[in-house]
Write a structure and sequence with these properties.
Strand content of chain A: 15-25%
Structural class of chain A: alpha+beta
Distance between the termini of chain A: 49 Å
Oligomer: homodimer
Largest interface: A-B, 20 and 20 residues
Shape of chain A: globular
Strand order of the largest sheet of chain A: 3-8-4-5-6-7
Order of helices and strands of chain A: HHHEEHHHEEHEEEHE
DNA sequence: ACAAATTTTTAGATTTGTCTAAATTTATTA
DNA sequence: TAATAAATTTAGACAAATCTAAAAATTTGT
């Protein structure tokens, strides 16, 4: 597989999370920052290789083989991210770009050994689950911070938006995975939140709160 | 730079070691396992980018910029090889292929951090020197085992041929970098050697002996 | 339900890196 | 040194991945 094919497969996987049946050509084009006509060409090629179901004008979806392939690429991406943070002291906002390159390195043994070096991590630095060697993939039952009711507390477990800008915002405000956040108040007008994190009170916009995955603490 | 351009630059560097003035199109084609016409095309492109001196029919050579570029790629290749052996327990015959892929990863910080993780190694698993961050490159004054006179001893410091086949031969015969070898006898007819390594006596063909870099022990 | 808007595909062009075959230049040698 | 051989370059083609513009299919809205 070429890098480009792998990137399309990965995009298709990300677009198919949730209850998505088929993915539109335009959706893929937007995700890949390319033109719909280029997507059509690639879908034909991936279809011939048995990686996607494709009928013209009917949208596209991954085959079982395509899903397995996507998971293998995502596994590589996320293991490399862990490596960069744990072994080379990169920050979580620096690793995505480099992992985008490293995910295309072809060597099963390399990934197995890397997994071992990192002690078989289950999550990447952004809290995203790392698929297993044989395609096992645990979709977490995540809630977003803006879905937590007033008065309840939750633990940060991941970020939905993993752009450097968002990650640096979290760093700047000392919000990290594992932190406990209590919802003190919700502003009706703009859905912003007043929260308690550690000893500090903070005000978070709806945009921030809807990009933080949390696990609510059972009372 | 594309992967292909980088591979050509690296090939040109390897072809220019020694007292080579200019490199022929055919030599490059052979090294790259491609056709001379493809080489011509690429030399034009590299010339426009200021990486090589090229005049048609007159052969090619690296510019200072080209040399610097080559050293940076070789540095990456060799650091990755050390990583694979030291951190992921690969054997020295397994690392070349994977390093060929890893050497194209673009991130200066990644390489600096990797260098640090590995404690700034000066040689790769095959005994080849690792260029410095700023292009410092120590060509060792290597001798080959077949150049050592009878009765003298030498330490293995590197391999000229780093093919998996040759490396596995050395493993099988328990010859490793750092070992001391004494020349007991030379066979005039085929230039083969009788050597002493540790407590063992071995017979090495000329082909083997001319692919082992050694440092003679001063008496 | 049918015209308009949107989405998707096709057709043809472009770039990169490669190839083959033919032409050209340089090197060899009789 | 002139003919022959070898090396190199040019010309034209191809595959991969992309693009633009036009055509075709589908969806939407009244």
């Amino acid at each position: 597989m070429t890098h480009s094919e792998e990137n399309y497969i990965k995009a298709l996987f990300h677009l198919s999370i949730g209850d998505v049946e088929v993915i539109s050509t335009n959706a893929v084009a937007e995700k890949m920052e390319t033109k719909p006509s280029s997507v059509t060409d690639m879908m034909k090629k991936l279809s011939e290789k048995g990686l996607v179901h494709y009928k013209k004008y009917q949208g596209v979806s991954l085959t079982d083989l395509g899903t397995k392939t996507a998971l293998s690429i995502i596994r590589k991406h996320r293991l490399w991210e862990v490596f960069l943070v744990e072994k080379l002291d990169f920050t979580w906002d620096e690793v995505h770009e480099i992992a985008e390159q490293l995910e295309h390195i072809k060597s099963e043994k390399l990934i197995d050994k890397l997994d071992e070096l990192l002690s078989f991590p289950k999550f990447d630095p952004h809290g995203d689950p790392i698929p297993g060697k044989n395609g096992e993939f645990i979709e977490r039952d995540n809630q977003l911070l803006n879905q937590i009711p007033i008065g309840f507390s939750a633990i940060c477990v991941g970020v939905k938006d993993s752009s450097a800008a968002f990650l640096r915002f979290l760093d700047k405000n000392n919000i990290a995975l594992g932190n406990e956040i209590k919802i003190l108040e919700k502003e009706e007008f703009d859905n912003s939140l007043r929260i308690l994190i550690g000893q500090r009170e903070l005000h978070l916009s709806q945009q921030i709160a809807s990009n933080l995955y949390v696990k609510m603490i059972k009372l």
